[in-house]
Write a structure and sequence with these properties.
By secondary structure, the protein is mainly α. It folds into two domains: 3-74, RNA polymerase sigma factor, region 2, helix turn helix motif (Rna Polymerase Sigma Factor, Chain: A, Orthogonal Bundle); 98-167, Winged helix-like DNA-binding domain superfamily/Winged helix DNA-binding domain (Arc Repressor Mutant, subunit A). Helices cover 68% and strands 0% of the residues. It contains seven helices and no strands. Helix 4 (98-116) packs across helix 7 (147-167). Residues 111-160 form the RNA polymerase sigma factor 70 region 4 type domain. GO terms for molecular function: DNA binding; sigma factor activity.
Length: 177
């Protein structure tokens, strides 16, 4: 591939997946600046080694795996932090009242905070499934584990989030879905 074609391809990939990769990196490192550095490093490595991409998975899955690996390299062992996620959620419809938007945002903040306190194996699966809206098959490919492992981690992660939400009074005992 010629340099011009590679440049165009990289720009397209960055436009398509950049914000998803940034959100994913942020869920690991809890720092906007560090997440941006990780995503930038991933795009640089992708650009340099673009010819080596074999196409066994989609480009999106490949880049997600690169981000996960880079985050794991950054944190050899995860230190749990109680950092609230802000501005990472989809905007509410304009037709809802201000009061309901505030309540919904508060609920989303509590859920996001609960997810960030989980072990990495549950946090990453919940995040990829609910916030990045990836399929279980794609998540299994990104995390290099079986589909059944992803399903188990989703179920256990939901249960743990439900327990945390119940303790905080935001949960009525029904399964978190």
């Amino acid at each position: 591939m010629e340099k011009q074609q590679r440049d165009i391809h990289l720009r397209e990939v960055m436009d398509l997946y950049g914000h998803y990769l940034l959100r994913l990196a942020y869920t690991y490192v809890k720092s906007k600046e560090r997440a941006e550095d990780i995503v930038q490093e991933v795009f640089i490595r992708y650009y340099i080694h673009m010819e080596q991409f074999e196409g066994r998975s989609s480009v999106k899955t490949y880049l997600y795996r690169m981000v996960v690996n880079e985050c794991h390299n950054y944190f050899k062992s995860w230190t749990y932090r109680k950092t609230e996620l802000t501005n990472l959620f989809k905007k509410q419809e304009a037709s809802t009242s201000v009061e309901s938007q505030i309540l919904k945002q508060e609920e989303m903040d509590v859920i996001a905070h609960s997810i960030t306190t989980l072990e990495t194996k549950y946090r990453e699966v919940l995040w990829l499934y609910y916030y990045d809206e990836l399929s279980i098959t794609d998540i299994a490919s990104i995390l290099q584990c079986s589909v059944n492992t992803v399903k188990t981690r989703l179920a256990r992660g939901r249960k743990r989030v439900g327990i945390q939400l119940e303790k905080e009074g935001f949960y009525n005992g029904n399964e978190f879905t």
